[in-house]
Design a protein that fits this description.
The protein starts with a strand and ends in a 7-residue tail after the last strand. It is an alpha+beta fold. The chain is built from three helices and eleven strands; from the N terminus they run E-E-H-E-E-E-E-E-E-E-E-H-H-E. The strands form two sheets. The chain has an eight-stranded antiparallel β-barrel with strand order 1-2-3-4-5-6-7-10. A two-stranded antiparallel ribbon has the order 8-9.
């Protein structure tokens, strides 16, 4: 399998922060995200405009995920498709995102937005190729298998 870990983030309706998205399900095994949990066991991050990276020769990311520090740049090559890609800062890992209802309204992500994050460990240099494969449906079976492996959900005592 190319995809190794899964995290589902949602913009919860009761959340007052405009850019916060909360993890509502995960396979729970990706340490670079797991260390971001608070004392209550909750995992949340912020998604918004990319103010963390400067564009040189390469394209500047469309969005960024952060939590006190930059976690990942998020690239949106085709705004008509529900897919993004990025990578975990400081690792060799690629991120693939499947999203729905992710419009930004009045400076914040709309309630009900869902962002599924799939990790491909060691595949940072292949993230664009993986994006192409995901858009062609080539990773659907792997994504569904990871969704079925969810070990933590908001129904658990420790959130997500």
């Amino acid at each position: 399998m190319i995809l190794t870990d899964y995290y589902r983030f949602e913009k919860l309706p009761q959340q007052s922060s405009k850019l916060r998205i909360d993890c509502t399900a995960s396979t729970g095994g990706y340490d670079p995200l797991e260390v971001l949990r608070n004392k209550a066991g909750e995992l949340f991050v912020y998604i918004g405009d990319n103010t963390h990276t400067k564009a040189g020769k390469e394209r500047k990311a469309d969005l960024a995920i952060s939590k006190g520090k930059h976690i990942s740049s998020v690239y949106n090559p085709d705004w008509t498709l529900p897919y993004w890609y990025g990578d975990m800062k400081g690792t060799a890992d690629a991120f693939l995102f499947v999203h729905k209802n992710t419009e930004f309204i009045n400076g914040g992500i709309q309630a009900g937005a869902v962002i599924e994050l799939f990790v491909a460990r060691g595949q940072r240099n292949n993230r664009i190729q993986l994006y192409n494969v995901i858009t062609d449906g080539g990773l659907d079976d792997e994504m569904n298998a990871l969704r079925m492996q969810v070990t933590k959900t908001v129904a658990d005592t420790a959130k997500c």
